[in-house]
Amino acid sequence: MRYVVQVYKVTTKGCEASNRRINPKRTIPTLDDDGFYLWDSHAIMIYLMEQYGKTSSLYPKDVQKRALVNQILFFDCGDLFARYVTVVNRLLFRGGTSELTDKDIKFVAENYDMVERFLQGGKFIAGNEVTIADISIWCTITNSSTYSPLDLKKYPNIKAWFGRMEALPYAHINIEGRKEIEKLFAKFLNK
């Protein structure tokens, strides 16, 4: 697999017609695997594991272990990341208020509580091996904590898990991304 990354300036204005065909939702990331286009990070991770990571523990072959990974990915997609995107869109793209609502803060806290419970049974989100579910949730939590801070004293399992995630050889990608998100949100949250 070739790794080609193209970065486009994000705007609220319309995209070129060809880009709309590639990704009608106009979101990032979008994968181009030799003309096969796929958008949504969750779908992309699953595809990459099934297509190129056939022996990787990041997406287990065991049906029950894989089901747990999928369950967490769907939780991220439907709950945690969904709330994150709602707030991001309101703050950055829709001209909304720079204040978080009590509902925003409560919803994110409930999701942090859920992740804390996921981590009670093992070192990682879906057991004792790192999976794409960990990568997904870790990115979402580190980004959402830029506007809804995570009190690690309240979440000892998340704190220990963060340490394990930050020790991974590719952790710098998420850490650098979070710094960029922090800069962006600082402008809108009056920090």
UniProtKB/TrEMBL annotation:
Lineage: Eukaryota, Metazoa, Ecdysozoa, Arthropoda, Hexapoda
TM stretches of this protein: none
InterPro entries named in the record: Glutathione-S-Trfase_C-like, Glutathione-S-Trfase_C_sf, Glutathione_S-Trfase, Glutathione_S-Trfase_N, GST_C, Thioredoxin-like_sf
Domain (GST N-terminal): residue spans on this chain: 1-56
GO molecular function: glutathione transferase activity
Protein name: Glutathione S-transferase
Domain GST C-terminal stretches: 62-185
One GO-annotated biological process of the protein: glutathione metabolic process
Highest taxon of the lineage: Eukaryota
Alphabetical list of Pfam families matching this protein: GST_C, GST_N_3
